[in-house]
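Internal ticket - ligand job 238, 2-phosphoglycolic acid:
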Amino acid sequence: MAKKTVMFNWKMNPPTIREAEDLARASDHQGVVVIPPSLFLKPVADRLTRAKLGAQDAFYAEKGAFTGEVSVQELKDLCVEYVLAGHSERRHTFGEGDALIAKKTKAILDAGLTAVLCVGETEQEKRAGRTREVLKRQIESALSSVGGNRSDQVILAYEPVWAIGTGNPETPEDAAETIEYVKSVALGAIRRVPRVLYGGSVDGENIGSFFAQDEIDGALVGGASLKPDEISKMISVL
Ligand code: PGA
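stdout (structure tokens):
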């Protein structure tokens, strides 16, 4: 079985550099990608020796008059290797649509970084039986311009919106089945089967049951990645 990856998405946490440094030290393990707020990338990078560094978002333009935004080149200069695109909070809290997410994905890949494209249905879409249709649209719109040549720089994260931050994860069996579908759609778009992570209320208790599924290549973790005891439990299954 290929090695699993765990990505720690801190979102807009913690409030101080000092706490960020402590979390970085606790997370510094092979197979981990630490994804802090962009303001803390440098101090976190300085604390990591084994874990890799990721960013939560990036704008698509190279440089210029885009107040508040961060470019992929700026991230690259801070040793970032992975960048999230289309996280559900970007889609639903900040109103990012498929076209913008496609441009950001392309910019990440063009810079030679790995894009972690996040996809997932809302509770309403799930109830309406539209999960596959939504996933297909999100994957194809973001990856259609990628083609085969940059396909090894693409990772996907399947994160059902209703499972994020709720303590109510998808079951590992259902997540694996949906991820199999995600891989088949991605294969059509980039002519290669990418690694696909599961995200949504993963913690130190349940991570092992997700990793027991062959189709699931890793986990994208939010809340539990801020708690030292959860971090050590998650690292222990890598
Ligand atoms: P959660 O967040 O682990 O807190 O559910 C996952 C994510 O948003 O990536």
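Auto-summary: The chain has a mean pLDDT of 96. The first strand starts at residue 5 and ends at 9.
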